[in-house]
Amino acid sequence: MPLFSTPFAQLDLIRQPDQANDPLQAFDAADEYLLNHLHEQGLAADARILLLNDGFGALACALAPHCRVTSSGDSFLGALALQKNLARNDLPANSVPFVPASAPFEGPFDWVLIRVPKTLALLEEQLIRLHGQLAPGARVVAAGMIKHLPRAAGELLEQYIGPLQASLAVKKARLLLATPEARPTPVSPYPTRYRLDKPALELANHANVFCREGLDIGTRAFLPHLPKALGALRVADLGCGNGVLGIAYALSNPQAQLTLVDESFMAVQSAQENWQAALGERSVSIRAGDGLAEQAADSLDLVLCNPPFHQQQVVGDFLAWRMFQQARAALVTGGELWIVGNRHLGYHAKLKRLFRGVEQVAATPKFVILRASK
Asked: Where in this chain does the record put each Methyltransferase small domain (predicted)?
């Protein structure tokens, strides 16, 4: 992989999760543009910089030797990449504190550098949290590849920070430079909430949760077919989002032992709040993680999964395939993986490569629910 050449450092960077012969880089022209701009403006050695959504740690690794850097984002895999890339470039593990998006960051900051996320609600929540965290004369600069930079991102910066100036395009990247002005203390519209009838639940959804305004149609297709009355099984909701599958399963299987895991810190925060509201103090493990990578082999009887088909802006089935592999490793012999997927993704054929038996449990015009036995 090519090195990331910046005015601050030459870096050897990797993405997460690991993928053999990964054709994608852990940085792009928007990262390069941000760092060049920072270098041109001049960076004081004692400057405090907040990085938001620094995908795989490219910005943090470049700046860590030169100033005081804090990184914040909603991806466990992004936080993992930051740690691996610090080590890979001989930088101290503690040189860049990482703050999950589910927790507040503490300023004051002289610079805020933002990679505009795919979910603009996350950007809005982050900008709201910047209120009162900027030092006098602070500068806020957002960046993105033009094809992924919607007009609404600039409108949010103007609404919550101040007047906006857009840069010229360089290598198909653009900067949005906001000048902080006094603003009334904003009130966050997050988390949002919606209700289900079956099961009867009210679900909280923090800003970066998938399908924040209502139940996604894949999960809606899956819920009526969740297995029931299976006793004290050890069950994981893999890629749990707001926790709806795991919570619904737990309600109809009172003896089951549940684990809910997602790589989004805000999803985990939502799932924890929703479990508490629905099931009180019933024992559960809810964690941010790289899927079931940390789950002991042969430690689960059942895995439920509505797999994602994108990571940031990259669409594909790599993450789903990896989740299927993780599920197989974690399941006991005879254990089952239940998934919902779009018909056109062909998960049936993929699961047959990993599992002893695969059958269709149910189908809608758009989705299939599959059961794979180890």
From this structure: 201-371
